[in-house]
Amino acid sequence: SRAEIPPGRTDVSSDASSRTAAGFPFLRSEPMSCRGPPFQQSRPLKGPGWRCAEALSSRAAQGGAPGSNADGTALRLWMVRASAQVSYPAALLWSICVVVDQEQDPSYWNTQARATLQAALKLRPQAHRAKNIILFLGDGMGVSTVSAARILRGQMEGHPGEETVLAMDSFPYLALSKTYSVDKQVADSASTATAYHCGVKANSKTVGLSAASSPYECNTTFGNEVSSVLHRAKAQGKSVGIVTTTRVQHASPAAAYAHSVSRSWYSDADMPSSARREGCTDIAMQLVSNTDIDVILGGGRMYMTPKGTPDPEYPSSNSRQGHRKDKKNLVDVWLKARQGKNAQYVWHKEQFDAVDVKSTDRLMGLFEPKDMRFELFRNRTRDPSIVDMTEKAIRILSKNPKGFFLFVEDKGRIDHGHHDGIAKLALTEVVMFDRAVQRASQLTDESDTLTVVTADHSHVFTFGGNTPRGNPIFGLAPKKADDMMPFTSILYANGPGYMHVNGTRGNITSVDYLDEEYMQQAAVPLDSETHGGEDVAIYAKGPMAHLFHGVKEQNYVAHVLAYAACLEPYTDCPPNTPGSGSCLDYIGYVSRTHSCSTEEEQDPSFWNVKGQEALRVALDLKPNVHRAKNLILFLGDGMGVTTVTAARILKGQMAGKSGEETTLKMDTFPYVALSKTYNVDQQMPDSAGTGTAYMCGVKANYGTLGVSAAVKRSDCKMTKGKEVESVLHRARKAGKSVGIVSTARVQHASPAAGYAHVADRNWYSDADLPADAVNGGCRDIAYQLIHNTDINVILGGGRAYMLPKETNDPEYSSRTGERLDKRNLITEWLSMKPNSRYVWNKAEFDAVKDWETDYLMGLFEPKDTRYELDRNNTMDPSLTEMVEKAIKILKKNPEGFYLFVEDKGRIDHGHHDSKAKYALTEAVEFDRAIERATELTSELDTLFVATADHSHVFSFGGHSPRGNPVLGLSSRIAEDLKPFTTALYGNGPGYKVINGSREEVNSTVAGSNDYMQQSAVPLDSETHGSEDVVIFAKGPMAHLFHSVQEQSYIAHVMAYAACIEPYTDCLLPLRDNSQAAPSLSKLFVILLGILPALPSLLLT
Q: Which residues does Mg(2+) bind (predicted)?
């Protein structure tokens, strides 16, 4: 923690040159400029690449080399949105220009996706035994943290950042992990460590014990111990090690070797006397006595030596002296027990570097009295990095011919940085953590080493704020907040960064917000920022890595690790020989339906059986390599990982359960991937640029639809020749029926990307077209809806854009259509379509007979449909009802269908309004629609994909017990002695200061439909988030969704799965239906065969 940084930090330089020398050249990228355009627009701009070219050539004309600063000032890139002017270092600007130029061409994205698709098609599970296991644990490394760290790493290397690939991103298999503990909705590092180390979920504060033990009650320890995979690996003759950037007695590594009712009993001095009398042992003592660990590297010296023993590095510091009361020197105990086993102890990097791995079989290195320092403050002459320690550990452990188990944790870095509300500390640690992952990959062989990277929990960390492409990750958002003060794109929902001066938010330009210890602003004041409650990612490669799939309980991690290496209880396991297949009959399989019962969950067998069942399902899972007849793409607009997790809990609580253990329908989809959502010109994307990516397979600019990134927003004349076709359009050309269902207006960006090509997503009707667009021949989205693609089913809102201004709305007499051209597009559409129906209310909708209808348009509101919470059940159908009607009409086509389903006006708009109840209720309804779709179709011939276009700066965390209402209050109060909700936003309209302090909230207010959760920064509309979103998939070729992908990859997989352009040569076989039901021709042959025998049969 920061307390461990020596006063004055005389050994750590704070100037930019020293950071560059240390390998962090862009940590202090110049802040954005809020001044006018640096380059005069003497002629119409032609796109980001043109602007880059002019910017650089103008500098070159002044005598500067491309990308240099002739006059010493930073080059500026005038971004698409006039307000988004950003000041960049010259080298970074040059890189942005090169990248943007490439990305304007659709062939860039098509070629990239084809290569990725080919790699996915060649991917084969390694179904043999793992000799070695490496478990990397990024403590507090949620999905938003990983995404931000990816950008940081790219910017540190001189690139825009968003397109960067982390080492863990390249791992081929990915899953999500549910992190709650038995007694907490938002878990701690102790209970989660017990889950992923030992395969059993536990109570908070406890390590290596089942949930039958109670925190701090020593007498509940005995008989409730559970063994870790590390311990089981050692029992089978493997070498084992732990590497951590915190104290080696910290909860995460401790769960691998200790059994303690308190994660804080580091030494005997930390234990109450009653616990010592009852026979409990401190964690440090268990470190040297419970399991023979070969390599131990990290911090924690003071817990190993007698009280008063001077620390070798800080001999004059009383606070760093030995801590033990029993007068034992556990370092000496460890060394003595390993006499004759080539054991060494080191505490300094010089000693560490001198260790000869060839002659060393046991190594303990303790480099700080407590936690090790943050990477930004590490003394490179005294302390090794996590990369150094990982390499040394692997070189020592890999000498064992039986293999090894290594646990590597970056804890004191990522997690502590977030707790301190200092994002720069946290994200820099993730970058170093990823470098350790990369180095481990170089030192091992994927054919015999299972490598898993995951997190124990997340944090209430958000980043968004309408930032342009390449925006410095620690920089400012391009626009000021509603209080007319700037804000950083990174914010926290709660934490020590909450600071108000005279009743107003602090002006961050008065401080150095790029400083290493700058605390990002927070919505709620806490002395320590809290963990988040959402799912975290699992990245895996190597033998049996394919068993990590879908959404799993966190304890599943330990079961896969044990099974892959044939450790207890899976000694009947995969064979040793690579490529020889796996044994599926390893478990006495018991099918059980588990109810949520804390008493039941206290028994380790509950979690072991649950883990075994999930493992059996994974082993039985076989890819469906047939052609998809039908394609259904479900798009939860704004449905980030945090929203999915919170909706899961809400769904369970609406059913009368605690919620955390609930399974959404999309959770059951067997294949999971992550999608990188940035637009070509924006770090924080919108629904138009993302819609073009997942619908058309090509990334685009912010605000543009169905066109390549060569088109600048709102520039009509750039559109022609830059159109890109959607999978929906290609499916229709291939003879399939197609449909769109949306809870927004059907002209909204997400569905419009399926049929329209416009330079501005807001050109809903001709009334929205500017004069130059009209003169340029551009058409509005509503017009293109009925003229571009022959769409069979159109359901949602948006009547106003289809009707003349002179026409009254049928539901609201005071409202009229919006079209200026006097055209009624509804009647035009009906006149063009046979067997067609138009409806505008639920009664008419319900009366539609799907067997008589080939075309159906239903527009139930003038603009967006209502939120589910406000929907009039007698006037408007639900999303689920619209999906059912659409499928029943579309599935009549023997060639199959393509259906796009979006919950937009619900999830996304609810978040923009900072009304989490609306957003989460919509997500629950969205999941119901998915469930109904799966009931009406078969995954044998239907590819289902559920994903999001982007996330939001929404978080939930705080201190919430198991079953706490997901929209309720934290169990603790904030530093201002006021309660706060666990659900909060980074920015948005929920920011309120009354009489100079934060607004009061109680459970009644927090539970109301219209309650706006509080935020750190005041905006009239909460912004999108910039992190990755999840792709859930099942059905034919669903296994191609794996790892971390560009969002444009989605369209390519869907096109390939259905063998439509440009993959008509896919050669995928159609599913053989002969076993399901005999064809008419076969029945005819059978009848011909028995006809001659009928007379004799009748006589008998």
A: 139, 250, 252, 409
**Confidence band for 89, pLDDT divided at 50, 70 and 90:** low
> How far is the C-alpha of 217 from the C-alpha of 968, rounded, in Å?
29
pLDDT of residue 4: 32
- Tokens 């909450």 belong to 498
For residue 703, what are its two tokens? 């605000």
The reply to whether 189 belongs to the active site is yes
Q: Are 208 and 194 in contact (CB under 8 A)?
A: yes
Name which residue leads in pLDDT, 591 or 1094.
Answer: 1094
What is the per-residue pLDDT across 46-63, written as a single tens digit (0 to 9) for each?
333 334 544 444 434 444
Please say whether the beta carbons of 463 and 472 come within 8 A.
no
**Region of poorest pLDDT, from 562-566, 599-603, 982-986:** 599-603
- 660 lies in the same domain as 559: no
Compute CA 77 distance to the chain's CA centroid, rounded to the nearest angstrom.
Answer: 30
Q: Looking at the structure, do residues 789 and 878 belong to the same domain, yes or no?
A: yes
Structural domains counted in the chain: 2
Report DSSP state, residue 456: S
For residue 569, say if its preceding peptide bond is cis, omega within 30 degrees of 0.
yes
Domain range for 922 is 630-955+1026-1058
Residue 126 lies in a domain: no
Q: What value, to the nearest 5°, has the Cα angle with vertex 745 and ends 742 and 750?
A: 60
Task: Report the C-alpha gap between 1016 and 984 in whole angstroms.
Answer: 9
Which of 705, 691, 561, 570 is CA-nearest to residue 635?
A: 691
Q: Are residues 827 and 947 in the same domain?
A: yes
Distance CA 256, CA 197 (A): 6
Picking from 280, 292, 164, the residue whose alpha carbon sits closest to that of residue 237 is 292
Residues 6+ apart with CB under 8 A from 53: 97, 101
904-936 pLDDT, tens digit each: 667 999 999 999 999 999 999 999 999 999 999
Query: Is residue 1099's pLDDT more than 60?
Result: no
| Whether residues 762 and 879 fall in one domain | yes
Cα-to-chain-centroid distance, residue 1086:
55
Same domain? 679 vs 544: no
In the predicted structure, residue 568 carries a pLDDT above the cut 70:
yes
For the chain, give the percent of residues with pLDDT over 90.
83
Mark out the alpha helices in 237-329 (DSSP H runs).
251-254, 273-277, 283-289
32 has pLDDT over 90: no
Q: Above 70 in pLDDT, residue 87?
A: no
DSSP H or E run through 247: strand 239-247
Q: Which of 29, 189, 267, 765 is catalytic?
A: 189
> Can you state the percent helix, strand and coil of the chain, rounding each to 5?
35, 15, 50
Count of residues for the chain? 1100
Which single residue is written with the structure tokens 């904030």?
974
Neighbours of 460 (CB within 10 A): 34
Q: What is the pLDDT of residue 56?
A: 43
Report the SS3 class of residue 515.
coil
Residue 555 shares a structural domain with residue 654:
no
Nearest CA to 383 out of 920, 117, 739, 6 is that of 6
Instruction: Give the tens place of pLDDT for each residue, 274-330.
Output: 999 999 999 999 999 999 999 999 999 999 999 999 999 999 999 999 999 999 999
Q: What is the dihedral of CA 153, 154, 156, 159, to 10 degrees?
A: 180
- Evaluate whether residue 93 is within a structural domain: no
Residue 616: inside a domain, yes or no? no
pLDDT at 90: 56
The CATH number of residue 541's host domain is 3.40.720.10
Residues tagged in the binding site annotation for Zn(2+): 139, 415, 419, 456-457, 531
Residues 561, 650, single domain; the answer is no
User: Does any domain span residue 104?
Assistant: no
Binding region for Mg(2+): 139, 250, 252, 409
Same domain, 676 and 792: yes
pLDDT recorded at residue 12: 30
Model confidence pLDDT, tens digit, residues 444-459: 999 999 999 999 999 9
